[in-house]
Design goal:
This protein is 19% helix and 24% strand. By secondary structure, it is α+β, with helices and mostly antiparallel strands. A 4-stranded mixed sheet has the order 1-2-10-9. Strand 7 and strand 8 form a beta hairpin. It binds FE2/S2 (inorganic) cluster (FES).
Length: 189
Amino acid sequence: MAETTHPSGVGAHGAPDGEGTTRRDFLYLATGAVGAVGVAAAAWPFIDSMNPAADTLALASIDVDLAPVAVGQAITVTWRGKPVFIRHRTEKEITEAKEVNLGDLRDPQPDSARVTKPEWLVVIGICTHLGCVPLGQKPTDPKGDYDGYFCPCHGSHYDTSGRIRKGPAPANLPVPQYAFTGDTAIRLG
Ligand code: FES
């Protein structure tokens, strides 16, 4: 069964409603979980090889409402214990992603193979070098030399399609399994 995640503004902390948690509380908890992912990232391959716990199975799929995310904005949701970066790309970002010569890429993949709709980039936000969470989601974050994401751990730069362009990371940010369930709604998993 899928849970629904509704993005809201940065720093929104809802109050418990007595019956459980509000949507904003869920977001707050999910955002908090992203912080924990950094600590757990190094152990991920090991954890991945174990049988999933019941609560992991419960979050095998989540629905994400993208309607509140304006062009140029980004949200991070936690899915199966990992941060998923969702960016509503601008025309400029889409053009940059499409115009790249594949021969210049370390891990050659056309943008069209990495997105379902050009305006929405959905990638797992874990650097393929050593598993840090790259910067580039917040408006104030450095986005690296290619307008995408920057991993300050050892200086990996990703482009607006999440492809590795510079630095030690060997591969592009992975695209998770997802599908659009509406014009502005996706289901991860
Ligand atoms: S973990 Fe990202 S550059 Fe090393």
